[in-house]
Design a protein that fits this description.
The chain is an alpha/beta fold and about 110 residues long. It contains two helices and six strands; from the N terminus they run βαββββαβ. Helix 1 packs antiparallel against helix 2. The longest helix has 19 residues.
Length: about 110
């Protein structure tokens, strides 16, 4: 199971773009880590306008926090995060200063 929690600022990522971003997260992660897109969950957390600030200004930053199968090699993890960053920036037009991507190991229960 792979999970992505995408924290976005209200009005920055249009509703109609979110399914494409979710599809790309599934495609990229399963392409690099293996598995099937049905095993990928994407959750959207929207920060209401006026509740997120950076440097004294309204924030335009998004965070894509992945939880991936444990034991991923560092080189693979970096490749995953770079691919996610590149595609997210391509689809949204954001800059590297407006995106944080992370991928931690899923905790075994």
């Amino acid at each position: 199971m792979i999970t992505f929690n995408c924290t976005i600022q209200e009005g920055i990522i249009p509703d109609d773009l979110r399914p494409k971003l979710a599809s790309e997260l599934a495609r990229i992660s399963t392409g690099i880590l293996g598995g099937n897109s049905d095993d990928v969950t994407v959750r959207w957390i929207e920060i209401p306008r006026g509740f997120g600030f950076r440097g004294g200004h309204l924030s335009t930053t998004s965070a894509v926090r992945g939880e991936i199968p444990p034991g991923c090699q560092q080189e693979t993890r970096v490749r995953l995060m770079q691919a996610i960053q590149d595609r997210w920036m391509e689809l949204t037009g954001c800059t590297t200063a407006e995106l944080v991507v992370s991928a931690r190991d899923r905790r075994e229960t």
